[in-house]
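Bench notes, afternoon.
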Amino acid sequence: MAETKRVVERPLSPHLQIYRPQLTSITSILTRITGNALIVAAFLIVWWLLAASSGPEYFATANAVVTGWFGDLVLSLSVWALWYHYFAGLRHLYFDAGKGLEVQTAETLGWVIIIGSVCMTLFTLIVI
């Protein structure tokens, strides 16, 4: 009878200690994180609006949170997340059209969305 080899020798996946994250993977992960962060910010804003319609004492609590340091931090980061998510969505549409899929172009677009989102966040926070 022929002897069958039960253990298949396959190469191991890159381990986290030796794997160098690429910019495209980091921007993809950041897109998912910013999308979820925008949901948290939306809940904070909806809570604030519901508190405004509930009564003055409940609104005072919600307003203290939203206008305090925590609220300022969350809403400022939400502005960045909104711009980042917007630019990443535009890049994704560009990729869906079959354009910009070369490695150098994809990395350049990654830097464009990072730098562009930071610049637009600063512009938004300064102007508004």
